Amino acid sequence: MRALALALALLAAAATLSEEQKIDALIQAVADLRGAVFIRNGSEYDAKAAADHLRLKREKAGSRVKTADDFIRLCGSTSSMSGLPYQIRWPDGRTETSEAFLRARLAELEGR
Which residues make beta-bridge pairs with 37? Predict the structure, then answer.
């Protein structure tokens, strides 16, 4: 029963998040990762540096970013310099794109 109540509370909270709050939560999800390495243009960065970079890209994107989907597409997926996708290498050696990670987190935030 408790798990169901928690799930319903999370769904209700997700339904009330603004797009700005969703973007903030996505950046925080990146900042909170421990042991992951972020690969951008062939260089490796820790979670804090990756989150800082996403914040900078969001700021530079300005009014082009209106939704969390815009943020993922325009700021969180690929390098605007090289066009290469951002990657996350997990402690177990697996690699996934930052886009896949961010889209999964967004789906959780939106209760999908």
Answer: 89
The model carries a pTM of: 0.84
Distance of alpha carbon 78 from alpha carbon 75, whole angstroms: 7
pLDDT tens sequence across 85-105? 999 999 999 999 999 999 999
Spatial distance between the Cα atoms of 51 and 47, rounded to a whole number of angstroms? 6
Query: How many domains in the chain?
Result: 1
Look at residue 105 and tell me if it is in a domain.
Answer: yes
Question: How would you label 30-55 residue by residue, b for 16+ Cβ within 10 Å and e otherwise?
Answer: bbebeebbbbbeeeebebeebbebbb
What is the residue range of 12's domain?
2-33+47-84+98-109
Residue 51 lies in a domain: yes
59 in a structural domain = yes
